[in-house]
Specification:
The protein is α/β, with parallel strands linked by helices. The chain has helices spanning 2-18, 31-47, 59-73, 85-95, 102-108, 125-136, 168-189, 240-243, 250-257, 270-274, 279-295, 311-317, 339-347, 365-373, 390-399, 413-424; strands at 20-23, 28-29, 52-55, 79-81, 114-118, 140-145, 159-162, 193-195, 200-202, 217-221, 262-268, 302-306, 309-310, 326-327, 357-362, 377-381, 404-407. The termini are far apart. 43% of the residues are buried.
Length: 426
Amino acid sequence: MKAVIENYINDLHKLFNETGVTDISGKNLSLADGLFIAAEIIMKASLRGNKVFFIGNGGSAAVASHKALDYWMMGKIRTTAFSDSANLTCISNDFGYENVFAKQIEMFADRGDVLMAISSSGNSENIVFAAETARRRGCHVFTFSGFKQTNRLRNIGELNFYTPVSHYNKVESLHLLLCDCILEIITQERKKFIINPEHAVHTGANNFLQARSEKDILVALDRDGTLIHDEGYFGLEDNWQDNLKFYDGCIDMIKSLNPVADVVVTTNQIGVARGFYTSKRVGEINKYIESIFKTQGAVIDGWHYCPYVERAWARKEGLDLDTPWIKDEFPKTRKPEIGMLEQAAVDLGKELSSYKNIFVIGDELDDLNMALNAGGIGIWFDNGKNDYLFEEVKKLKTANPGKIFYVKDLTKVIDMVQSVRNWFHL
């Protein structure tokens, strides 16, 4: 009997250490980073007066109810679990069980609230619908799932905790433990927060989120064809460092933007899905470019890339459909969608809606359309190799007055940003 108990505990310990965390772009985080980021987002949300919601079915519903109570009692956070039987039966009867949580989120959730979505399989329709609804309402979404790595819930959250086991009792025990860890961080770290009327800034040594800045402009820069020359799928060759060449003015542009804006890089990298290079190489290239920028005094506040493609396109292109880079639908983090912008804001301790102006600079139509989808301004960079797009850019400019511009000199970008900024603050 003792051996059975010891084996079970050892299994839980092993599975806890194997728990994976990904962000909305699919990038892997360490478990420690994921837990600390979740705790900081919840603390900042609580200090703003926002709420935390827990949802789950069956055993996961018990976890949700249990943790909602603990977060309220021990964390001093406004929490609730959507577990009232009258609400559940009413909504199920009138709208179907798949909407039982989404309808309550539509009624009670505000922008900046946090949803803790717990599903052992990660495929519960009502949990998936609720998470998607919460994202649309501007909520932070953390998902907790198990069973198959390809479960639907893992594609939705800003943080996605995945436990690699298919036994309900172990998955639920580990989800409970993960929520406990986040709460423990909150209770221990709360005293390290400085509260002022505007926001909270973390003062502890382990600050996994950057302190929230007062900059109200977000500038997203494309990488290939905008910052660096690209002959097609940069990184395909092993000697990519020898081929790296920056466009004139890109470093000066970044340096001029740094005092007034949060500056991030957002880049589609479908070469990963095509098998041309690995996601690791994309990260290596980004780090190498960043190191060069830093020596010149240019700061990038966040690097974001999307390696994913949709299944229909992958099938048409004859790609391997069994790789993790294939999504059933068009990836939310792939331009012209705004997922990378949303993640950039989250990583900076903000919400995308908190920016007064959003600029996207790039050499492709997807860059301009991402800007429009985010309610921002697109600046098309004429790099001398994309003249074939000029007529399409003109059409976009005509259809969206004051929203589309183009430059041949990257150092002129700051003039456009400052012009819009000064006009906005009149």
